[in-house]
Amino acid sequence: MQPVVTAQPFRAGCKSKFSRTCSMRLWRHIWALLRETVERLDVAALVVTVGLWVARLFGVVPEATALSRIQLGVILLGVVWISLWIPYRMLRIQFVRHESESGELRSRIKALEAQITPRLELLTGSDEKSPYRLSHPFIYPGNVRRDAVYLRGAVVNPSFEAVSECSVTLRRIEKDGIVLMGHEHRPLAFVPEFQGVLSKSISPRNDALFDILVVTAQGDVFLGTHPPEIERTNGQPTFAEKGLYFLFLRISGANSAPLEVRLAFSWTQNHKTSCLWMTDPKA
Fold first, then answer.
1. Which of 91, 102, 186, 219 could be stapled to 170 by a disulfide with Cβ–Cβ 3.0 to 4.6 Å?
2. Domain boundaries in the chain?
3. Are strands 275-279 and 144-146 parallel, antiparallel or unpaired?
4. 121-279 belongs to which homologous superfamily?
5. In percent, how much of the chain has pLDDT > 90?
């Protein structure tokens, strides 16, 4: 599969780049280690102690003084401490280098896996220049035309694998915390060249438009079903009153996890000023 083949040179390139970066960091750590070692040693005491020790070997000083014994003890402890401290610091540098390289590789591989894994996203908007808001005449029964605004969304497939059998379902409509529609699920239709299609495959890095609502100049709000229909609650149009409505959609595909989204619809009873946008489902 193409994504797997692409992942191999990706890892090799990352490893080469990280190796060069970490080698420079390693040399900087070694230099800092040497400077710290020199600063920690008492150079004067070392010179005096070594001098007394050499003089004692050649008989210049017949017996080591108490001071020389203390200095020899200090330098011996210093040598032991340094012999343990330097390997410890070297091992720590290697550990930090390995952790840094592994962490960056894991984060990049995780991002790549997120692109490989099939998933769906939703885009929508009601700005006048938005591609998801279309002004187009709506044809009523009897071939009666009225100005209308089509509020649309786009199902996006950002992954590297096609998602088949994609569908969008309107599951619930709420207003002021009251459920106005929730017993029947309404499948929404893809548009425009897929007019009437309720399920389709979306190729990698591609999207598909679908109608959510159709708002006419006559004051009617149609669902983006095929054919468009006016939803009713207790015999009355669901969008009979002005206000803020919430629409709950479910977007699913055969090989991707379902996506639950919530849309807010501001209904002003004017097709030019009413708008639709996506909100946080947990809000």
1. 186
2. 2-116, 121-279
3. unpaired
4. Immunoglobulins (2.60.40.10)
5. 36
Distance CA 202, CA 160 (A): 11
164-171 average pLDDT score:
93
- The residue type at 39: E
Q: How far apart are alpha carbons 152 and 77 in whole angstroms?
A: 78
Judged against a pLDDT cut of 80, whether residue 242 lies above it is answered with: yes
Task: Assign 56 to helix, strand or coil.
Answer: helix
Secondary structure of residue 8 in the 3-state scheme:
helix
Threshold 0.85, pTM exceeds: no
Please check whether residue 206 is in contact with residue 157, taking contact to mean a CB–CB distance below 8 angstroms: yes
How far is the C-alpha of 114 from the C-alpha of 134, rounded, in Å? Answer: 33
| Contact partners, residue 37, CB within 8 Å, separation at least 6 | 82, 86
C-alpha span between 155 and 188 (Å, rounded): 12
Token pair 């040598």 is found at: 79
**Bridge partner list, 188:** 168
- Span 207-227, pLDDT tens digits: 999 999 999 999 999 999 988
Which residue is associated with the tokens 């008492």?
42
Q: Can you read off the two tokens belonging to residue 13?
A: 């390139």
CA-to-CA distance for 71 and 31, rounded, in angstroms?
28
- How long a stretch of residues is the chain? 283
Which range is least confidently modeled, 64-68, 178-182, 203-207?
64-68
* Separation between Cα atoms, residue 73 and residue 75, nearest integer Å: 6
- CA 283 to mean position of chain CA atoms: 20
Q: In DSSP terms, which residues pair with 172 in a beta bridge?
A: 248
Angstrom CA distances, 24 to 11, 12, 78, 152, 283, stand at: 20, 19, 29, 53, 48
